[in-house]
Specification:
Oligomer: single chain
Structural class: mainly alpha
Shape: globular
Strand content: under 5%
Largest sheet: none
Radius of gyration: 16 Å
Number of strands: 0
Helix content: over 70%
Number of helices: 10
């Protein structure tokens, strides 16, 4: 992901929706306040231009979800970030019901809202749409571990953790 981000952002060429999607992903990873605000504002702008930009809507839902949980909470924000994240995730699914990514974001949002049954229903739908997505599998496994289904979660995590060159940081946390 970092190579792709560097390539896209250094050239300034290509689809701006893809570049800001990568920027949003980086903002989620970094917890950098200015980067979060920039990505959020640019995604809002692009969604106004292209209301069918489903991956952007889902990424924006993820950013609002992160903002709800951890901040940043700007004084001039006149919205509930948690409600906004749920609204956007549902909108992404409405626009593209086959999107595993949109269901993965809904899974995360519902889980952190403590609606565990609905969260796992969304997670199951995400997995049904893309059973080969190891990031999604890792998210699902980690959440199983968090709700006490440790054996099942660890088995799933063990099956997915060795894909790729570098083990993702949250895999280490769950292990």
């Amino acid at each position: 992901r970092s190579q792709e981000r560097t390539k896209q952002l250094s050239t300034g060429k290509g689809d701006p929706r893809y570049r800001i999607f990568l920027e949003g992903s980086e903002a989620l990873r970094s917890f950098d306040h200015p980067q979060h605000i920039k990505a959020r504002d640019e995604l809002e702008y692009l969604i106004k231009i292209d209301p069918s930009f489903v991956n952007g809507i889902a990424m924006l839902a993820a950013l609002y979800g992160r903002q709800h949980l951890y901040g940043p909470h700007d004084q001039d924000d006149d919205f509930d970030a948690g409600e906004r994240s749920l609204e956007l995730a549902r909108r992404a699914i409405e626009l593209r019901p086959e999107s595993a990514f949109a269901y993965q974001i809904l899974f995360a949002i519902l889980f952190f809202r403590h609606d565990v049954a609905a969260a796992f229903a969304a997670g199951d739908k995400a997995l049904a749409r893309n059973r080969y997505d190891t990031t999604l599998q890792g998210d699902y496994a980690g959440r199983l571990i968090m709700i006490g289904e440790v054996k099942r979660g660890m088995e799933m995590l063990a099956r997915t953790a060795d894909f790729g060159v570098v083990r993702l940081s949250w895999y280490h946390f769950y292990f």
